[in-house]
Every structure is written in C-alpha cells, then in structure tokens.
Design goal:
Strand content of chain B: under 5%
Shape of chain B: globular
Radius of gyration of chain B: 21 Å
Number of strands of chain A: 21
Oligomer: heterodimer
Largest sheet of chain B: 2 strands, antiparallel
CATH class of the largest domain in chain A: Alpha Beta
Largest interface: A-B, 27 and 23 residues
Strand order of the largest sheet of chain B: 1-2
Number of strands of chain B: 2
Number of domains of chain B: 1
Structural class of chain B: mainly alpha
Distance between the termini of chain A: 55 Å
Radius of gyration of chain A: 25 Å
Distance between the termini of chain B: 63 Å
Shape of chain A: globular
CATH topology of the largest domain in chain A: Rossmann fold
CATH topology of chain B: ABC transporter involved in vitamin B12 uptake, BtuC
Structural class of chain A: alpha/beta
Number of helices of chain A: 17
Chain lengths: 494, 330
C-alpha cells in the first residue's frame, strides 16, 4: 500500500512538533526517517498510527484520503506501528497478547490462532512459544511478537520507531532480515531512527527531519557527511581526543569485593589518576554498575578498600564502608542511568533542583538567589528551558545537561552511567565537552557505556567486565573495538 | 450429620450472596483499573433503597432495580470524578463511603418498621434431593442461584472471552490497549458502573433476604470493607474472590453456631472474630509476596521447600498494573 502524508501540522503547547511535513512512501520500499531527538519523527508516526491526531493535514492511502481518529482506525486500514517502548501486557501469555483487541469473536479459538501464529513465525525464523508469559521474553522477542501481531492483523504499512534500542546484535540482524523480507512482500516500511549506520545499511531511501520539517531526502549511495549536515544543519565531527591525565593518583581501589545476590565481584584493584577518564565496558549486568555504585558509596563493599589520596606522602583515607554523604562531601558524584527515577525529582522545576543541590543556608529558600543561579546555570550548560520548567518537560538531552549542572564544585570523582544514552550526536558531544572540562580541573571520570565507539573515543583507559570478572586496564589508544567486543562476549579471558 | 445443623450450615451460601455480588462487582471494576472504594457505603445505601423500593412497589424486581441503580449512580460519580476530572479515586471513594452511609440512614428512616419482604425460597427439583448438597446449596432464593452463576460467568468472561482480555488489558497497560483499538476511558466508565450495579444488587439482596432494613448498623456495616479486602487478597480473580466470600461468611456462621456451645464467652467476640480471622487468612494466602519467606524456606529440606514454595507461588497474586491511575493518550 502506498502512503502519503501531506502538510501535517501538530503543536504541543508552543512547540511545533510537526511543522508542515509531507512524505510519500511507495509499497515495497524501506523508507528511512532520520532526525535528532525532537525532530518530529515519532509525532508524525503516532499521527499515522492514530495514537494522536494532527492539527491539520491529509493522509492518503493508495491515493485516496482517509480519516484516522484512533489506533483502531489505522489498524483497520492496514497500518501497524511498532512503538519504541513495547506496547504489550507483560503479565499475560503470548497468545493472549496476540488476541487482545483483535477481531476474533467473543470466544477466541486459541488452537486455531496458535497454529496461525506458528506458521507466521516460521516465515521469519522467530521462535516464541505462544504459552510463555511476555515478561519472560527479551525486548527483542517482545518486538518480534508485536511485528507478528501486526502482520497477523493484516498490516500493509509497518512503522518501526527506533526498533534497535535495547536488542542484541543477533536480534538486530534478524530484525533487518525480517524487514527486508516484508518489503519484498510489498509492504511499505517506515523505519525511524537517529542512527546513521542503520539507515544506511537498511533503507532504500531516507527522509531527514529537522525541527518538525522534512528537510531533504536521499537514495543510495548515501553520503554520511551530507546526511549529518541535513540532520543538524551543519557538519559535526567528533572533537579531537585530548588527554588530561596527570601523574598524581586520585584513588586507589584495592582488592574490592562486592556481593550481590546474583553476582560476586572480587579482587578488583586499580588506580585512578587525576584528570583520567576510565571507561567500563561489558554487557549490561556484568558488574560495572555495581562497581560504580560501590565507588559512589551507595552499595557497601563486602571486602577491600577504596583509598582516596589526600596529597600528603603516604596519606590516604579508606572510604570503604563509609556513608554515602561522606562520599558526596568529598566530591564524589554519581549520575545514574535512570535520570528521572534516580537522578532527578519529577514534578520539581529546574530552579527547585538547583536550590535543592546547593548547601542550605537558613530555613527559607532565597528565591532571588536561586533565580539568579538558575539563569546562570541554564546559560552555562545551554539547557533549553526556563527556571520554572518542570524537569520532566525537558527532553532527554536537556535533562542530562541539567544533571551535569547540578553537580557541585569541586569534584574529585565523577561516576557516570550511560551518560549519553538516548541522546543525539550534538547533545552527547556537548555533554562530553563539559565532562572534559572537569577533567582539566583535575577530576577523574569513570563511566559505563554500551556504545563501544564512545568508550574507545573518550576513555584514557578501559576496564572490561564479564560475568563479575574485571580485566586489567587497557590503554585505550592501543585497543581496537574488535578486541573489546571479543572480551565483552567472554572470549580471550585466561 | 444432624439435619438441623446441615440446614443451618446451608445458610452460609444464602448469607454470602450479598458479599459475592459485591466482590464480583468490585473485581470487574478494579480489573479495569478503577478503584471503587465506596463499597461499604454503597452497599448500605442500596440495601436501604432496595428495601424501600420493594415495599413501596410491592415488587422484588423493582427492589433490586432500585438497589442496583443507587449503587450504579455512586459508581458513576466515582468514574466521572476519576476518569473525567482526573481526581484521586481513593479520596473520592472514601468521601462517598461516608456520604452514602449517612444518606442511607437519613433517607431510610421513614421505612423502618414497614412490613418485611423476604425473598421466597425456590427448591431446584432433583438437585434438592441430593444428600447433603441438596439442602445446603439448592434450597435457596433465586438471587442466591444467580450469585452462583455470576461467579462462573465472571470467570469465563474475564479469562475466556476476547472482551475479557481487553478488560484485563485496560487495567494492566491502558496505553497498549489503546494502541490495540480499545476506547480505554469509555470501557472504564462501563465497568465501573456495571460493577457498581452488581454491588447494589448485593445490597438489596441483603435487606430482602438476609436481614431486613431496620435502620441499624448491625450485620451490614463492614461488609463493604471486607468485600474490598477479599477482592484484593483474592487476586482480582472471581473464583478466589468467591472462595474468600464464602469463607468469611462461614466464619460468621461459625460464631453463631458456636455461641450456644460456649456460653461463658462474651457473644461480641463471636461477632467481631470473623473480621480479624479473615484478614489473617488473607494475609496468609499472600505470604509469598514477602522476601523473607523465601529466605526462611531456604533452610528447609529440599523436598519440603519445593512443595511449600510451589504452594505459596500458586497462591501469590498481582494487581492490575494501572489500578488507580488515570489514562491519557499523550
């Protein structure tokens, strides 16, 4: 089915999410939709799938105008959307997830539906048992289930919104294979992403969105440089790699042992020098997050020492077992991955956050002082928002900047979990510029990232984690992504 | 067994009718993601309205319609406040509990002392001759039979039909249900009002078969709270909820049956004991939700641990994930 969106407008408050976007997708093509966070990609897709309604504009299917008021309408017309967050029912069975909302009559014939489901998933080499519960599936499998469901309902147009977030490499390969098969069957595929390499390997054409507008399109062979220029309005190259490592040792970790119910990490010893950036690589749950939290004073190690050097010869303080507040007062700062859940307070404004983070003097908040401070920080950290904006109204990138702006001075050690996850290239580069400033001032950084490129580019040294084991520190300039990948996958450990 | 005792034991199923209706109604409502906390007041109000309507019209039918309508109206107010106006369901429900209770005693005063109407017993041919089971289960009012049927219908509807899956869906993940084409808020209105109407039938059943409306709190006050607790600890499951309802009424009956045998014990104890006993039983059923249980069990021999932990896991329950939270698409 051919899809055409004509002059779609949609505003949220004062934000023009879609500012007159038009887009044409022929059946059998994989249409890439590229753009940074907040460019209007998801909004347009939600309009096409009926989740929200456009303020104005037309939707044409096979050349005739249609009205889509709700997801029910779009499903009937053959449009299916795979949402970024799985829209399914975790405590229910796979088969029930398939049935919910489908026109199968009052008493669904489960046997027949299971047979159809099995036949459908054979086509794509999926292997999901219809009787398992969805909360036991991986994100990739839940995605497969959702794709199957949409196909089972007869979708001719398939929208995939950032489908590669949170799935494994093999699942990604299977997903891409599936998408190609579907396109070959004549389905129209809309593939939304902000990842250039995915768009370039998969899509038969790409449209680039910027600030709510469709700013251009391209067909293979793609020019990455040109795409980036369209996305951001200018070319961006990663900043030169700089090393601020000083000789002075900042922290010494000695035979640290941490016990979790699931995982035991022991005999971890390494030194952290001033100004140094150490990247922690590994599959999620291999122990990196535990080390970071132990160094932040949030979980208590069961053995070993965390020495902080205080400058005098032989003078060191053991922090292991001390209270989190003490860690904090010594200039150790932790930025968790779950920004809204662990790092920031939903419902409070930016100004209130700044007031909270400062040392309290007196009983009442000095509104004027806080206002001044907030304005200062907002411009220093280039946050798009006002002191009165509530934190959850900000985009992910701006929330991350706010977290950075909340850190106190002086800093000795900065512990970061996925500092740029979900952020576009421009935002993440900005974050790193700010972080490197801290290094130049003598602070050390330890960070976790699943983006190996980021780990190699920004670290001075790298520690690899696998199942609770920790590698010796590698010099980042001497290691390749391939070598790291093998270690992360459990190969090459003695 | 003594036939008198048997007949007396049979009254458990008759008395339990109102509780069963209330639990089924609340289960439907909460499955959809809405808490109707007003149960205790709604039941009293509909008991009063049901009695008043029946004695005024002389018809049981209008009695039940009146009771259902009164409670459905309360449920509609809760739905409108929480879905339409996005107010706290707990606060609205609690205020309505108090308001409806007072309203019932205020409006019900003129009907105290009116001629009692008692639903007639209907024996089911053949079944009522079955030994033991016959007199216990099948010599009851029509509404009692309806309460049996309701449990089964609720169970089949929730777990075997496509509409029931959507009902579970809107209480679990309203956004995902919306994506699948469900009109979440309209369905929530529907199930809240339907659930309320069932609660109302329960209230009317109380005053028209268990104990007549006499303007006093004895007997009926507290049933609503217990029904709420049974709904939650029954894991939002009709069969488990029904078992809970029968167990509670059984405890009440036990108190009455034991009283003559233990003349030295204060009779109030028999009246009050079912409530704490019920709560204890419900807590025990859900003991698997606590972490320390796993740790304690770890010390047992392997076989015993396996059996006990499987038993506990089987009893464990989880509420609808979106219970009590409003839904907005964006």
């Amino acid at each position: 089915m051919d899809v055409e969106l004509v002059n779609i407008y949609k505003t949220f408050g004062r934000v023009h999410a879609n500012d007159g976007i038009s887009l044409k997708v022929k059946s059998g093509t994989i249409q890439g939709i590229l753009g940074e966070n907040g460019a209007g990609k998801s909004t347009l897709m939600k309009i096409l799938s009926g989740f929200i309604q456009a303020d104005s504009g037309d939707i044409l299917l096979d050349g005739s105008k249609v009205v889509i008021q709700s997801p029910a309408d779009s499903v009937k017309l053959g449009i299916g959307m795979l949402h970024q967050d799985p829209q399914d029912f975790p405590p229910m069975k796979v088969i029930d997830n398939l049935i919910i909302g489908s026109p199968v009559g009052l008493f669904p014939n489960r046997k027949k539906i299971i047979k159809q489901f099995e036949e459908l998933q054979k086509q794509f080499n999926f292997a999901i048992s219809p009787d398992t519960y969805v909360d036991t599936l991986t994100v990739g499998e839940r995605q497969q289930l959702e794709i199957l469901r949409l196909l089972w309902l007869g979708a001719e147009v398939l929208i995939l919104d950032e489908p590669t977030t949170g799935i494994s490499a093999s699942q990604k390969a299977l997903l891409f294979e599936t998408i190609r098969k579907l396109a070959a069957q004549g389905k129209a595929i809309l593939f939304v992403s902000h990842k250039l390499d995915e768009i370039e390997t998969l899509c038969s054409q790409v449209a680039v969105f910027r600030q709510g507008k469709n700013v251009g399109s391209m067909v293979p062979p793609y020019s990455t440089e040109h795409l980036v220029e369209m996305m951001f309005g200018k070319t961006i190259a990663r900043s030169e790699k700089t090393c601020d490592t000083q000789d002075q040792i900042n922290f010494e970790i000695d035979k640290l042992k941490i016990d979790d119910r699931r995982l035991v990490i022991k005999d971890v010893s390494f030194q952290i020098r001033r100004g140094e950036v150490i990247g922690l690589a590994g599959m999620e749950g291999s122990g990196q997050a535990m080390i970071l939290r132990a160094l932040a004073g949030i979980i208590r190690p069961t053995g070993g020492h965390i020495y902080m050097m205080d400058g005098k010869p032989d003078g060191r303080v053991d922090l292991a077992g001390k209270h989190y507040f003490q860690f904090r007062n010594l200039g150790i700062s932790f930025l968790p991955a779950a920004r809204l859940e662990e790092g920031l307070v939903q419902g409070l404004s930016l100004a209130e956050h700044f007031a909270l983070a400062e040392k309290q003097e007196g009983f009442l908040i000095d509104r004027e002082e806080v206002e001044k401070l907030s304005q200062q920080r907002i411009s220093d950290f280039n946050i798009r928002g006002t002191p009165e904006s509530r934190i959850e109204e900000l985009s992910g990138g701006n929330q991350q900047r706010a977290e950075l702006a909340l850190m106190r001075n002086p800093l000795r050690l900065l512990l970061l979990e996925h500092p740029t996850r979900g952020l576009d290239i421009e935002s993440s580069m900005y974050i790193w510029t700010k972080l490197k400033q801290r290094c130049a001032e003598g602070a050390s950084i330890l960070f976790i990232s699943s983006d190996l490129d980021e780990v190699v580019h920004y670290s001075d040294r790298i520690l690899v984690f696998f199942g609770g084991r920790v590698s010796p520190a590698f010099d980042a300039s001497l290691v390749t992504i391939d070598q790291l990948g093998q270690l992360i996958g459990g190969k090459g450990w003695s | 067994m003594d036939s008198n005792l048997l007949a007396s034991f049979g009254s458990v199923f008759a008395w339990a009718g109102p509780v069963v209706f209330a639990v089924m109604g609340e289960t439907l409502t909460e499955k959809a993601g809405v808490i109707n906390l007003s149960l205790n007041g709604s039941i009293i109000l509909s008991a009063m309205v049901g009695f008043a309507a029946a004695t005024t019209t002389g018809s049981f039918f209008w009695g039940f319609v009146g009771g259902a309508a009164a409670s459905a109206l309360v449920a509609f107010i809760i739905a409108f406040m929480s879905i339409g106006l996005k107010q706290s369901q707990v606060a609205v429900g609690y205020v309505l509990t108090l308001a409806t209770k007072s309203l019932a005693y205020f409006l019900g005063a003129p009907f105290i002392g009116k001629p009692v109407m008692q639903l007639p017993l209907v024996s089911i041919p053949f079944l009522d001759n079955l030994p033991y089971v016959g007199p216990v289960l099948f010599n009851k009012t029509l509404l009692t039979y309806l309460s049996y049927l309701l449990i089964i219908v609720c169970y089949i509807y929730m777990f075997k039909t496509s509409k029931g899956l959507i009902l579970q869906g809107i209480g679990e993940q309203p956004a995902a249900s919306f994506v699948r084409g469900a009109n979440v808020n309209r369905l929530r209105y529907l199930y809240t009002i339907l659930g309320g109407a069932l609660v109302g039938v329960g209230g009317a059943l109380y005053s028209l078969s268990v104990k007549t409306w006499n303007g006093q709190l004895t007997g009926i006050d507290g049933i609503g709270w217990i029904a709420l607790a049974i709904t939650i600890f029954g894991g939002w499951h009709p069969i488990r909820g029904a078992i809970g309802a029968y167990f509670f009424v059984f405890l009440q009956w036990l108190g009455i049956a034991l009283q003559p045998l233990l003349p030295n014990v204060n009779s109030r104890i028999f009246q009050v004991a079912p409530f704490p006993l019920m709560i204890l039983a419900l807590l025990f059923v859900n003991i698997g939700n606590a972490d320390w249980v796993d740790r304690t069990l770890a010390g047992l021999p392997e076989d015993a641990r396996k059996i006990i932990s499987r038993l506990i896991r089987g009893m464990r329950t989880r509420g609808p994930a979106a219970l009590g939270t409003p839904f907005e698409n964006e």
